[in-house]
């Protein structure tokens, strides 16, 4: 414990694909290319558990990044985050290879039914002993829409309105078996479960309806932990309402501190305890025995990026086809104002460039999308890296970090072997897991089933 705060939280940023979130990572000579095998993910899971990571977390999208020129050629040819497996089987493999590591994954509210998601995630939570987490996202682009039988992606704020209902409905199902509903009395005449403690939810909203009763009882941690990463005004409101673990892209401590505070305020505004919500930005730690060696590793990793990567991946998250403009053409206000992709990044580019109509070059240079500079880089000796992490943590810029890897599995192995002992020595990171469930290990309060929901809209 540090000054009464709970320990720093560490999450590994995982991808169920050919690369880490750094698209150039598959070209790294130390990357092990068995990314289609369960062993690849199980090995990383064991490494993370040795490093006492709280959680391994999988990103997800339902399409290749093919908005750029409406063509998948570049994404496939250069492996620009082109493979995307379903995270759930990988999560199950990783959970079964470990005993304490939390296992989180992303599932969108825009293209599934609440009952599906409620059932898959609660089942997973049982299979891995109460260590599952669900990252609630609303998806990003028209390619995802088209893969899921829809012509265009729903408007940004409307997606969040629908997502509010979606989460209400999922939680309704998760809480519709009371905690002591399951009896399993094998004595003659003994009951399996108490029917008065298993409820239909009769959810009827504007976007979703679902009757129940739900078909999976409560798990060892009650229900999976909810992750969220909304960053626009509407997104932060949503994260403040639901997120128990919140991911936020911060570039510097100075930028992070007010945003971290605003997020905690959004939690309090929803009548929740801000200490029960952990906030973690993605970072790239790059560590070696000497600072010069670490800088060389950083520069080598950076050299693996290709020029195509940035605009392909910007197109993906903004839902904009950048082939429409020359690199220095201002992008029309009408296009930017009505875009259905992530608003947070658009707003940041406008703010940093000071332009209402930034150019594609502004987007590339400010976002640094597709490179390791997209997130803060903590580079140097184990002490250097720990110093930077400690500063962010102590300055209340965050409660922990989403650790991204320049290559796989080495990026996680080097961090666990070299940086984790240094953080532990400083007393800001746990030496062992506090309990057996993810909720216990994150220091979150127990989840209590509130019984029959009254949520007719
Ligand atoms: C660490 C991190 C991981 C994310 N993972 C996903 C993901 O897997 N799928 C997805 O559609 N969005 C993902 N997002 C995007 C967020 O859900 C959100 O859309 C984004 O931060 C922009 O905020 P906004 O939706 O409020 O505009 C992630 C964001 C962050 C910071």
Summarize the helices and strands and which ones pair or pack:
Blueprint: E1 9-14, H1 38-50, E2 55-58, H2 73-77, H3 87-96, E3 102-108, H4 114-127, E4 132-137, H5 142-147, H6 156-174, E5 203-204, E6 209-210, E7 225-228, H7 233-242, E8 245-247, H8 253-269, E9 278-280, E10 282-287, H9 291-303, H10 307-318, H11 333-338, H12 343-353, H13 360-367, E11 377-380, H14 382-394, E12 400-403, H15 410-425, H16 438-442
Parallel strand pairs: 1-2, 1-12, 2-3, 3-4, 4-7, 7-8, 8-9, 10-11, 10-12
Antiparallel strand pairs: 5-6
Helix pairs in contact: 1-3, 3-4, 4-6, 6-7, 7-8, 12-13, 14-15
The structure holds flavin mononucleotide (FMN).
Flavin mononucleotide binds at residues 59-61, 106, 137, 139-140, 229-232, 235, 247-249, 282, 342-344, 402.
Count every beta strand, where a strand is a DSSP E run of 2 or more residues.
12
Whole-number mean pLDDT? 96
From the helix content, strand content and strand pairing, which structural class follows? alpha/beta
What is the helix fraction of residues, given as a range?
25-40%
| Ligand inventory | flavin mononucleotide
Biggest sheet, spatial arrangement of strands: 9-8-7-4-3-2-1-12-10-11
Strand content bin: 5-15%
Remind me, CATH topology?
Answer: TIM Barrel
**Which outline best applies?**
globular
Number of helices: 16
Multimerization status: single chain
CATH class, please?
Answer: Alpha Beta
Rg estimate, integer Å: 22 Å
CATH H-level name... which superfamily? Answer: Luciferase-like domain
